């Protein structure tokens, strides 16, 4: 039987989206632009990192400041203006930076089994930061089995020029009422080789290791719980463009570490008002240690920021009538931040302690209540929801004294879709979003990217208003989504350049002074030519205009997309892929002053990749030929160029 004939179950899972409404719905029913990648899609992509895994999702663009980073642009916004979720828990914390960051790279793609994106909505569903959408990642879960089941998996990945040398092991054991999953990986990434025979980008390589543990227990017919632990550690991650362009001898993330432990319980009751109750208690920790030293300078600057997040969430699923259901609940997140900085004279070994990037011992507390209602009337699906959110930030600044900042936000979502026959639907939605100013906005002091920032305690939330029209179609052979949108952005927190210079960097102050808008569209589709071959592709475009400054918005991605042809022949499954981006010459003043960008704009590019997999019952071998044309290219806004012509391999054993 062919690969495409076998994918019936996978296709069903790809047609179901949970994140759009916090409840399982078919994509055809949902009045939002949504994409779902299941385990088979993730394995097929065989990505090196989680950011690279998601770079071809419709509406998403990838910026890479360095090889150890990768920041998603969701309809033109990134950093702390885009919300990431992991297994129903906020991944964003109170120090997520404005603009590109590296945090998504601390999630190992080896552990993921499902990814969902929701464009133009997400603030009611999940809270602050979802100005233009939410990306929800789901890690692998141990499975129950009617008979004792033991599965062991081993995989090895490698690349030419020693650009990757990775190992991962996984063990899963399942019985009728309980199951266990343990996995771990070790990876070494060498310096990235750019195209057109221009050689290695030195230094850009680093090492990392990750581990995960999960245990599930079906305690009774009506109650299930699970506990999980996950961690990722990355060492000596160079910030390539700083070393090449800013006269640094050392500029690196000495250590990036993400760690979490959580408990999740799900109870099913006979009460209509609480058919299912889901509770999650979690602890997350994010550590970032940085080292920087200029050439010919004896001073080594050492910085450390750690965020410890404790959270509690409750979701109650109700069935009020045959056609009306809802999800309601509350969420609480509490961040404690430790921040330090010191200068070490390498000649005298004298250590000078300084204020950290954030006020040490700062606290950031978020709490919110939400309600989402799902109404099905004949061919219509209606989604209505509200969220009320409040924030309290406590900043004990050593130079400015104690400051307490509080703000609130109320947002809504409303959407309606209408089925046309059994294979297509049209939808119209309107959603408001918000982003409460976090500690990076309120309390950062010092050098960030190419600027020097000062604290700003007067800031208020940013807001978005999204209007969207879309069309969806799917049958046994063809599937597509088309959406058009316009997003108004108000009260935007803007870095305003002052005339002051500190340590050679211009000083910026943050203010709620700008209004902007984003407009564009996305298309994605898949056509099964026959039972053994298929075509799929996506195309995304966004136009961003800063109304206050009468100039383009910062870092707006160009028109970009991809097209893939997949074919199965015997035990071989092959894919040829063309990934491309047009040029981007609409630059803001901030873009032109960013040394990662050419002030004349970013050139368009296109690369061709080829992948083939040979599969047996218990093992498979995959080879990827990346950038066959050896094109030298750079993703818009990035600080490092893409990989040149190279071969990447993966060998997997599963028993």
From TrEMBL:
Lineage, uppermost ranks: Bacteria, Pseudomonadati, Bacteroidota, Cytophagia, Cytophagales
Boundaries of every TonB-dependent receptor plug domain copy: 28-134
Membrane topology: Multi-pass membrane protein
Keyword Membrane: yes
TonB-dependent receptor-like beta-barrel domain span: 273-628
Keywords, in A-Z order: Cell outer membrane, Membrane, Receptor, Signal, TonB box, Transmembrane, Transmembrane beta strand, Transport
Keyword DNA damage: no
Cellular localisation: Cell outer membrane
Similarity remark: Belongs to the TonB-dependent receptor family.
Protein name (Swiss-Prot/TrEMBL): TonB-dependent receptor
Main location: membrane
Gene3D superfamilies reported in the protein's UniProt record: TonB-dependent receptor, beta-barrel domain, TonB-dependent receptor, plug domain
PANTHER family in UniProt: HEMOGLOBIN AND HEMOGLOBIN-HAPTOGLOBIN-BINDING PROTEIN 1-RELATED, TONB-DEPENDENT OUTER MEMBRANE RECEPTOR
């Amino acid at each position: 039987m062919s690969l495409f004939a076998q994918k019936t179950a996978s296709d069903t899972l790809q047609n179901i989206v949970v994140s759009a409404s916090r409840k399982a719905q078919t994509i055809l029913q949902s009045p939002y632009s949504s994409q779902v990648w299941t385990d088979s899609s993730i394995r097929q992509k065989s990505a090196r990192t989680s950011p690279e895994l998601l770079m071809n999702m419709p509406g998403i663009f990838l910026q890479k400041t360095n090889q150890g980073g990768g920041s998603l642009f969701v309809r033109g916004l990134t950093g702390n203006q885009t919300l990431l979720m992991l297994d129903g828990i906020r991944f964003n914390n109170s120090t997520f930076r404005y603009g590109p960051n590296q945090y998504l790279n601390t999630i190992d793609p080896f552990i993921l089994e499902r990814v969902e994106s929701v464009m133009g909505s997400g603030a009611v569903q999940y809270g602050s930061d979802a100005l233009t959408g939410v990306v929800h990642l789901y890690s692998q879960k141990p499975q129950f089995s009617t008979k004792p089941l033991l599965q062991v998996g081993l995989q090895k990945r490698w690349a030419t020029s020693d650009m990757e040398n990775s190992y991962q092991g996984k063990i899963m054991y399942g019985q009728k009422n309980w199951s266990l999953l343990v996995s771990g990986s070790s990876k070494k990434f060498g310096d990235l080789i750019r195209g057109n025979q221009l050689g290695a980008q030195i230094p850009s390589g680093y090492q990392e290791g990750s581990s995960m543990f999960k245990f599930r227990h079906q305690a009774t017919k009506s109650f299930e719980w699970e506990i999980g632990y996950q961690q990722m550690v990355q060492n000596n991650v160079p910030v390539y463009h700083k070393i090449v362009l800013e006269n640094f001898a050392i500029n690196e993330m000495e250590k990036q570490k993400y760690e979490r432990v959580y408990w999740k319980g799900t109870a099913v009751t006979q009460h209509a008002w609480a058919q299912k109750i889901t509770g999650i208690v979690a602890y997350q920790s994010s550590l970032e240690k940085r080292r920087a030293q200029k050439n010919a300078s004896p001073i080594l600057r050492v910085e450390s920021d750690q965020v410890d997040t404790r959270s509690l969430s409750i979701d109650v699923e109700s069935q009020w009538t045959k056609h009306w259901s809802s999800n309601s609940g509350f969420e609480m997140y509490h961040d404690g931040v430790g921040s330090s900085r010191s200068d070490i004279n390498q000649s005298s070994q004298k250590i000078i302690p300084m204020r950290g990037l954030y006020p040490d011992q700062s606290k950031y507390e978020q709490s919110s209540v939400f309600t989402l209602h799902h109404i099905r009337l004949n061919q219509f699906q209606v989604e209505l929801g509200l969220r009320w959110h409040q924030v309290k930030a406590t900043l004990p600044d050593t130079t400015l004294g104690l400051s307490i900042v509080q703000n609130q936000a109320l947002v809504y979502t409303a959407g309606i879709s209408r089925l046309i026959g059994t294979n297509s639907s049209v939808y119209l939605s309107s959603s408001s979003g918000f982003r409460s100013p976090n500690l990076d906005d309120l309390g950062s002091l010092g050098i960030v990217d190419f600027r020097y920032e000062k604290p700003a305690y007067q800031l208020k939330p940013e807001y978005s208003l999204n209007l969207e029209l879309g069309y969806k179609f799917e049958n046994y052979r063809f599937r597509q989504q088309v959406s058009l949108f316009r997003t108004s952005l108000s009260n935007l927190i803007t870095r305003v350049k002052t005339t002051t210079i500190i340590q050679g960097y211009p000083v910026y102050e943050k203010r709620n002074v700008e209004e902007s808008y984003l407009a564009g569209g996305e298309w994605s589709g898949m056509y099964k030519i026959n039972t053994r071959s298929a075509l799929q592709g996506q195309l995304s475009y966004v136009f961003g205009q800063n109304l206050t400054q009468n100039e383009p918005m910062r870092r707006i991605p160009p028109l970009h997309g991809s097209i893939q042809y997949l074919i199965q022949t015997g035990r071989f499954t092959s894919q040829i892929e063309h990934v491309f981006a047009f040029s981007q010459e609409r630059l803001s003043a901030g873009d032109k002053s960013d040394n990662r960008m050419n002030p004349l704009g970013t050139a368009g590019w296109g690369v061709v990749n080829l992948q083939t997999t040979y599969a047996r019952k218990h093992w498979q071998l995959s080879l990827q030929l990346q950038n066959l044309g050896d094109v030298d290219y750079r993703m818009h806004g990035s600080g490092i160029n893409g990989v040149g012509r190279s071969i990447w391999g993966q060998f997997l054993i599963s028993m």
